[in-house]
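User: Once you have settled down, look closely at the record that follows, taking as long as you need, and be ready to discuss the fold:
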Amino acid sequence: MPTDIHTAFGQFRLAASEFCRTVDSASALDRVELLSRIYEILPRLIHQGVALPALSWSDSDTQKEIKHTRMREPEWGRLYELLKDKLEDWDLYWQVFDPTKDSEAIRGSLADDIADIYRDVKEGLDVHNPNLALRQDTICSWRVLYYSHWGQHAINALYTIHFLLESARS
């Protein structure tokens, strides 16, 4: 099992790091280049999120160390505003929140989607020299956040970016 934990941790960390580096470079990119890069990375990130093994939290105190790496609200706000300014009229889109239950469209925000994905996947990336318990708990955190939060944002963003890039390239 440790090999599976190390492999899952490494593969997700690689995709998450690539996503975060791309978002970190947003100020230097135009919106088409930024969204093109995110469009390429998101399927891999989603795939790695789905591939994370269902593990139990360790008995150690490592959850505090993982939470310590979580992006704070002011930092998230600055990222959101940067992305919103970068995307301009491409930021807002229409969606159905839960297509299995809802029939009315609501507004979504790509800036919010990207900033939320960033915050959730970055958690745990900055933990130095993760031992087995820390890797296990980081995987648990990434998996819980995928299914409860950032996975929905990733799917919505990918779908929206598809149409934005299609119209930009036409």
User: Anything to note?
Assistant: Helices lie at 2-24, 31-51, 62-68, 73-87, 110-122, 132-169. The chain has one domain: 2-169.
